[in-house]
Amino acid sequence: MKIRKGFTLIELLVVVSLIGILATLVIANMNSARERARDAQRKSDLRNIQTALRLYYNDEGNYPLKAVVDAVWGTTWTGTGGSVYMNLLPIDPLSPAQDYVYTYIDFDNYILKACLENKSDDKGVVDGTCPSGYKYEVKP
To answer: Which parts pass through the membrane (predicted)?
Structure first.
């Protein structure tokens, strides 16, 4: 009687199935981590823009009109006196087509908004204009 060494077909199928399940879980967690990282970048960008807006306010006495900021996303932002407020006004890390949104309210107020990907973010709020339905906004 010969003794055969090796794995049965059932044992191989079980191992391959377990590896597939584990790979699926790892990939799902990596995608979630990427979303959270891009959201952290968006929040950091808004804080930097907020600082530049405050510098502009200190120089000009009011916040810029909407058209002024919207014209320079992704480029250098210079004021009327030639002061450079940001060397590169940031754009969204995922999609350049989805810029940050600056809304001028009056000479003392504005709203700066970015769409978030991670809906479980504790600082986000519901917004129907964002693809994910979730946004992060800052005000002066």
So the answer is: 6-28
